[in-house]
Automatic annotation (TrEMBL):
The lineage of its organism: Eukaryota, Viridiplantae, Streptophyta, Embryophyta, Tracheophyta. This is O-acyltransferase. GO terms for biological process: triglyceride biosynthetic process. The active site is at residue 449. It is a multi-pass membrane protein.
């Protein structure tokens, strides 16, 4: 009977190791369906190689060094094989999961209705859905309908656009309006001189108020008289009237804000002397009359004066060019609608009190659609394109020139801020009821809106 050199316990351990390696390989083979990669066996092989290296190192140092190199290479290959095995294992598990889900999810026996659901257009679910597709459909229908109307109008009337509506034969003789436009810069300069005198206390406060009233009154009456006395084109008159209203609103804001800052300065001086002042005046606000701040305010896209404004870091020249191109396109669209649709309807209509009443209603309804388009183009050109272009050039930061007025909840921000700041709350502080203050602000806004539309149209009537 031969005697084994290896102890029995060692043989048992080796047998167990082989069995473990086979068991792990079988598990991986059944789950991954690929050639088995024995991680456990690999680690056991490394242990055996390390033992062999240690035994050989005791005999020969050179062989020890070579065996260490072999060990390092084996370790690197083992790590690479281990990473590949883990990646293959994850990929195969995902594939098996996808196949399993596909087999058992889409079987005929699986229930197709599992929850209580409402239709997308039901009253309780309509506002939770995205209506982008319906919006796109409405845009397509709108474009198709208006394209048909344009073709029908061109076939019926031909090309009706004439230059006389925008630039009449007297456009080159509109120099009084042009000179009036340039002379509007005199009024902010006069207001600045008055504020300089008020800061130096050369004139009393009642005189300051009186001078500002005179300046603002002349600033609004003088251009109106020029427009009414000169037979000018519609565009020239409308431009001058718009600039006149803007200058008047800015002058009022400048005078009112400067008056309030002087009051705050006086209150701070009284506080420094130990006198008591109302809590509303107890605040820090230095009043320094600066020509640069006034000049920036006169060209900035705002109607409310303040010494400084939020500024953007840089100017985007490419963005300005794109907005200018949009401005030119939409201005042309607005002129096309006016000349090609609105003028023929008005010229072919009878006086509502001299003709058929139903015919007058039909003319008004027919005129309402292009009128809405013109007002939308006007809003987009002025409040969005032009004011943003001006703000970008001047690096003006606050560009909330309008809110969602199409939801009938807000109004234009520049005029609204001016009305609240210089009309509504001053009326409230003077003891006027809120309803009456709101009515006063509404009437002031209505006067300027209607006056800005009526006076240039009166010139157009003279031309026709």
């Amino acid at each position: 009977m031969a005697i084994s050199d290896v102890p029995e316990s060692t043989v048992t351990t080796a047998t167990a190791t082989v069995t473990t390696v086979q068991t792990d390989s079988d598990l991986r083979h059944s789950s991954l369906r690929r050639r088995p990669t024995s991680t456990g066996g690999l680690f056991d092989a490394e242990s055996a190689a390390q033992d062999a290296v240690r035994d050989s190192c005791s005999d020969d140092s050179l062989n020890c060094k070579n065996n260490e190199d072999v060990k390092d290479r084996k370790t690197d290959h083992a790590e690479i094989d281990n990473d590949n095995a883990v990646q293959n294992n994850v990929t195969d598990q995902e594939n098996v999961t996808d196949v399993t889900d596909f087999k058992f999810t889409y079987r005929p026996s699986v229930p197709a209705h599992r929850r209580i659901k409402e239709s997308p257009l039901s009253s309780g679910n309509i506002f939770r859905q995205s209506h982008a597709g319906l919006f796109n459909l409405c845009i397509v229908v709108l474009v198709a309908v208006n394209s048909r109307l344009i073709i029908e109008n061109l076939m019926k009337y031909g090309w009706l656009i004439r230059s006389g509506f925008w630039f009449s034969s007297k456009s080159f003789r509109d120099w009084p309006l042009f000179m009036c436009c340039l002379s509007l810069a005199v009024f902010p300069l006069a207001a600045f001189v008055v504020e300089m005198l008020a800061q130096k206390k050369s004139i009393s406060e009642p005189v300051v108020v009186l001078l500002h009233i005179v300046i603002t009154t002349v600033a609004i009456i003088y251009p109106v008289l020029v427009i009414l006395r000169c037979d000018s084109a519609f565009l020239s008159g409308a431009t001058l009237m718009l600039l006149t209203c803007i200058v008047w609103l800015k002058l009022v804001s400048y005078a009112h804000t400067s008056y309030d800052m002087r009051a705050l300065t006086v209150s701070n001086e009284k506080i420094a002397k130990g006198e008591t002042v109302p809590d509303t005046l107890d605040m820090e606000y230095p009043h320094n009359v600066s020509f640069n701040s006034l000049a920036y305010f006169m060209v900035a896209p705002t109607l409310c004066y303040q010494p400084s404004y939020p500024r953007t870091p840089s100017v985007r020249k490419g963005w300005i060019c794109r907005q200018l191109l949009k401005l030119i396109i939409f201005t042309g669209v607005m002129g096309f609608i006016i000349e090609q649709y609105m003028n023929p309807i008005v010229q072919n209509s009878q006086h509502p009190l001299k003709g058929n009443f139903l015919y007058a209603i039909e003319r008004i309804l027919k005129l309402s659609v292009p009128n809405v388009y013109v007002w939308l183009c006007m809003f987009y050109c002025f409040f969005h394109l032009w004011l943003n272009i001006l703000a970008e050039i001047l690096r003006f930061g606050d560009r909330e020139f309008y809110k969602d007025w199409w939801n009938a909840q807000t109004v234009e921000e520049p005029v609204h801020k001016w009305m609240v700041r210089h009309v509504y709350f001053p009326c409230i502080r003077f003891g006027v009821p809120k309803g009456a203050a709101a009515l006063i602000a509404f009437l002031v806004s209505a006067v300027f809106h209607e006056g800005g539309n009526f006076i240039p149209k009166r010139c157009m009537v003279h031309l026709s």
